[in-house]
Design brief:
This protein has helices at residues 17-28, 53-61, 65-68, 108-120, 172-175, 234-239, 242-253, 304-325, 330-364, 373-379, 382-393; strands at residues 4-13, 33-37, 50-51, 74-76, 78-83, 86-92, 103-105, 125-129, 132-139, 142-150, 153-164, 180-182, 187-195, 205-209, 212-218, 222-230, 270-272, 277-279, 283-284, 287-289, 295-296, 420-422. The protein has 423 residues and is of the alpha+beta class.
Length: 423
Amino acid sequence: MNDAVLSTRCVIAGGGPAGMMAGFLLARAGIDVIVLEKHEDFLRDFRGDTVHPSTLNLMRELGLLDEFLALPHQKVFQLEGWVGDERAILGDFSSLPPPCNYIALMPQWDFLNFLARKAGALPHFKLMMQTEAKDLVLQGDSVVGLSARSPDGPLTIRADLVIAADGRHSVLPDQVGLRTIDLGAPMDVLWFRVPRREGDDEETIGRFVNGRILIRIFRGDYWQCAYVIPKGAFDDVRGRGIEAFRNSAAELMALPRARLDALESFDAVKLLSVSVDRLERWRRPGFLAIGDAAHAMSPVGGVGINLAVQDAVATANMLAKPLLARNLTESHLAAVERRRLFPVRVIQRGQVAVQNLVIARALAARQPLKPPLMFRIVSRSPFLRGLLARLVGLGVRPEHIQTAAFLPQAEENGASRPVSRVL
């Protein structure tokens, strides 16, 4: 039997924030979309769980905010830093326009399941789980589809547009010669959970001491923790043993040492190898990379998920009409890249500056840390605290929903038809 073949207008590799949001918005506009997700569900821990005001505003524009916030979440109105012995508020999201004036901490699988439910109710959307994009299908210099592996075997999907949204390890951009610009990262991050007890505070805070950094994130009945280490130092940390790691983490968290007994071994610790990079170009004829597949972000500011969502919105805003009209060209894809490249560059420059001027210095310090001058200036200025919250929470040039909801009558005027399957 020959491989199965599908035909659609747009196929998206990757069911993360960029892929699911792009698929939802394009299908909502009446475009046939297939989203491929290689896993059987979205349940992976220690992914980006910060839903920033920019994404909350998009949910509001879609009329979904109240339903979305019915999901379990915690609200963070301020960012607090703790350098040496000095603590201070560095970002004040409550200064942003309400009601989306906070960061919502929500497991990413809840966010993705929510989008999947909304998209799945649309006639032009198809989500294929346990289906991994493997290779692009080329016709001359143009991408005309991709091949994948599904539970039923090999699969080919023909499409007017292939979107790579399958993360920083996507193999698809390399297949069309898209090169990566590596901006460097001096650290890696170890993620783990610690139980929260009655009487603990609810503060989300980053603590910097000489040679060590820990960020603890309030998640209701547990703390989600990020222990920052020098790049490539995980083997050294592991070599000192889990007991030494627990002692260090407990000290930084200002919690009783016994609380860290939940970390029985390094099997409970997830290594995130940090990278900051972006593709030199994001597109080829018939192909576009967005989200982490186009630009890997540092965890600084927790902006990755929200930039990916912004990419998806811009993609739908700018490509829905040419996809419906079947006159998509590379110039349309280049316009998406131009629009999104500016905010990505600005945010990445800011992340690299924080990495080099704050994180790398803290990790290399051997003497007790003193708060840098900028820390003190920002902490004492309501204006600067609000400005930092705006940059982190709303980003640079935030996107807004411009695609109209699909109406059934549009079928008569050239809207795309349901996905077809040929064996």
